[in-house]
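One record is given unchanged without comment:
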Amino acid sequence: MVLGVEGTQSWRDDDALDQALRRFYRVGTRPLTAPADSDNDGMDDVWELRRGLNPLNPADALEDPDGDGYSNLEEYLARTDPHAFNPAPQIAIHSPRDGGVLP
């Protein structure tokens, strides 16, 4: 299985010593345009897994591991790294009249 790649793969545990221990694993398909969010926290599961978060824990959306004042959910929405300190964004408002920057 490759994270973020479409497709289905199945595995059977044929090496199990006891028939009762034999398990069947199935990975379902999901379009990349509609990523799964198992815990409904607003962050897709693949993004969470790639960043060491738990896709089954909705509480991690509110955490701020890098202490920059942005939650994991805000970092996800801004497409920034939740483990790298991000300074506050600088916003400039341009005047439609002359193109100058307003204070």
User: Anything to note?
Assistant: The helical segments are 45-50, 72-78. The beta strands are 9-12, 24-27, 93-94, 101-102.
